[in-house]
Amino acid sequence: MSPCLGTELLQPKSPPIVEPLPDHLQIHPMKKIIAIALLFALSLNMGKIIDYLTPLPEITLSGNTEVVMYGASWCSYCAKARRLFDRVEVPYIEYDIEKSETAKAEYDALGGGGIPLIVINKTVIRGYDRQKILKALQ
Q: Using an 8 Å Cβ cutoff, are 117 and 110 in contact?
């Protein structure tokens, strides 16, 4: 008698045998957790790390260079702009548009459009754009 087609699919298969790793190759679960936490922290701060490690051009300001930033205390891109100005040693004036009605009115007069809004010698930069900021400073 010939076997029915497909009966081999009905036969239970034993799971493959997986040999455990030797002791010297096993990783403690806590080490895995620490590694994942470190990778997560690194990913959250990658922008700061790249900003810090990327060389900046030498900036020589003329005596009448004026830098004004409209932002807010909670704004992470405003914080990036502050760090950039501090790194290149550029003096700037910062206005918090949430705390000053005058600053908010000036911000609106410039067209608003998000924060930070940076004005460098009448060049308006909307948002944090490192290359545009550095170009406007030179």
A: yes
